[in-house]
Write a structure and sequence with these properties.
InterPro entries: Ald_DH/histidinol_DH, Ald_DH_N, Aldehyde_DH_dom. This is Raldh2-like protein. It comes from Lethenteron camtschaticum (Japanese lamprey). Pfam families: Aldedh (PF00171). It is a single chain. The radius of gyration is 22 Å and the shape is globular. The strands form three sheets. Strands 1-2 form a two-stranded antiparallel sheet. A two-stranded antiparallel ribbon has the order 3-4. It has 206 residues and is mainly alpha-helical. The protein has two domains: 34 residues, no CATH class; 171 residues, Aldehyde Dehydrogenase, Chain A, domain 1 (3-Layer(aba) Sandwich). Helix content is 47%, strand content 10%. The chain has eight helices and six strands.
Amino acid sequence: EEKEEAMSGGAEVPGGDAAQAGLAGLLASLPGVPPSPVRDLRARYTKIFIGNEWRDSISGRTFPTFDPASGEKLCDVQEGDQEDVNVAVVAAREAFVLGSPWRRMDASDRGVLLSRLADLVERERTTLATLESMDSGKPFLPAFFVDVTGAVKTLRYFAGWCDKIQGRTIPVDGEYFTFTRHEPIGVCGQIIPWNFPLLMFIWKIA
C-alpha cells in the first residue's frame, strides 16, 4: 500500500484491473519502498542558464507551463528565442578557446566535476523526480527510477570515461602511419522532447 501511494500520489490508477495488476507487479520488483513525491513543490529556477548565470530572456517574454495530469499552472518560464540561442552558442564556444579554463582542465578533473554533478542529482532525486512528474504528467515512480536514476548513472558512466578516451594506431600495408584521434564536434543544440527531458539533457552534457 505504501508503494502504491508513492506511485500514484494517492490517486486511483486508471486502466482497470489489468493496470492495477501491472502496477502491483512493478512495485513488487522494486528494492524496498520508494520515497513519496514532495508535496506543494514550487519551481525555483525559471530563467535561462547561459554563461554560468541565470538570465531573463532578451525579449522579456515568458510562457506558462502546466501539470498535464491536473491542468494546474506550475509557473511562468522565460521564453528563449533565436537571440538567446545565439548568446548561448557564443558562451559555449568560449569553452573551446585555447587557454580557457575548460581547455586547461585535465580530463580526470572533468570526470570529477561530472561525478560531483551525479552526487548532487542523487541528493535531490526526490525533488527532481517530483518536478519531472509534474511537468511531463508521468507517474512519480517512473520519474524517480528511470528519469532521475538514469541521469545519475549516465553521469557516473561518462565521468569514468573522461580519462580513458585515447586514440589508436592501426597497422596497414605500405609506408603509412595510421592513427585515430578523438576530437569534440563543437557546440551542439538539441530540441528536448517532452517525455524524458532531464535524462536526455544529461545524455548531452555528460
